[in-house]
Design goal:
The structure is a single chain. By secondary structure, this protein is mainly α. Helix content is 81%, strand content 0%. The radius of gyration is 18 Å and the shape is elongated.
Length: 103
């Protein structure tokens, strides 16, 4: 039994994911810009997960159009797997702040 995915829904899904990822990017940048202490920027760091997610979404959209919809879906699933692994940046920043206060 062969299953085919239609190209258009996969592309639209990728665009939806990309827009949500871009919204996250704008939110994080806005929060970092308004934080006067700079602690949030230190906790966020380079935001590798966020930037990699955007790149994977773009690759998924391009793959759906020019390569294969299954390759595109693999990119979308890869982003979900990346974010499934817990992000410890904020936790580490809070622990460091508590250690500084305790000293």
């Amino acid at each position: 039994m062969k299953r085919n995915l239609a190209q258009t829904p996969v592309v639209v899904y990728g665009v939806n994911l990309l827009l949500a990822g871009f919204g996250y990017y704008v939110l994080v940048r806005s929060l970092v810009r308004t934080d006067k202490s700079g602690r949030l920027a230190g906790a966020i760091g380079r935001d590798l997960k966020g930037n990699l997610s955007l790149a994977f979404y773009i690759c998924g959209i391009v793959a759906a159009v020019y390569v294969n919809v299954w390759v595109a879906m693999a990119f979308y699933v890869a982003v979900a797997v990346i974010w499934f692994v817990p992000d410890r940046r904020m936790e580490r920043a809070v622990e460091m702040a508590e250690e500084r206060r305790g000293d």
